[in-house]
Amino acid sequence: QGRMWAYTVGFTVLPHVGGFLGWFINRKEIPVWYEKLKKPSWCPPRKIFPVAWTVLYTGMGYASYLIWNDLGGCSSKALVPLGLYGAQLALNWAWPPLFFGARNLKMALIDILCLDGLATGMLCSWYRINKIAALLQVPYLGWLAMATCLTIRIWKDNPEQKPGKSE
């Protein structure tokens, strides 16, 4: 029973690790570079992003625990559902360094489009295993849809942005 509690916490915290590192590494680029980008009127305020990601990562992490637990740990049955989870999480974590760090809007767009596909596949594979875990991903997919549209608009509206940090 005590060990299951540790697994629950570990799985729930894991997505936050990459999210925090992405923020920490790129935190100086946000006020300097991101604020100068042309963004659509419907772009959420900057202060909403950490709150939203905290909620989304918590739901994602707990849902991954539910899937892992229902499939008996790292079994062969868990390979596809948890593999999709790991792959989409890696792309999720890769987006901030591409967007903020490298300032490569095109690569960030490619990343998030691939992320959308993997996250959708993950939700579909999870639905057959644990409906609660799958439903916990619905807000994440909604936020990804908004983030994808925002990335597309920023990429289209800021064509002069090139990879690299020249100002």
Structural features, described:
Its main location: membrane. Pfam families: TspO_MBR. InterPro entries: TspO/MBR-related_sf, TspO_MBR. Keywords: Membrane, Transmembrane, Transmembrane helix. Helix content is 74%, strand content 0%. It has helices spanning 2-26, 29-32, 48-70, 79-101, 105-127, 131-135, 138-157. It has a single domain (1-157), classed as Ferritin, CATH 1.20.1260. The mean pLDDT is 89. With 167 residues, the protein is mostly helical.
Largest sheet composition: none
CATH homologous superfamily descriptor: TspO/MBR protein
Shape: elongated
Q: For the record, what CATH class applies?
A: Mainly Alpha
Rounded to the nearest angstrom, the distance between the terminal CA atoms is 55 Å
H/E order of the elements? HHHHHHH
**Overall number of strands:** 0
CATH architecture: Up-down Bundle
Report the CATH topology name. Ferritin
> Approximately what portion of the residues adopt beta-strand conformation?
under 5%
Spans of 5+ residues with little confidence (pLDDT < 50)?
none
Mean pLDDT: 89
Number of helices: 7
Rg calc? 17 Å
Roughly what percent helix? Answer: over 70%
Domain module count: 1
Structural class: mainly alpha
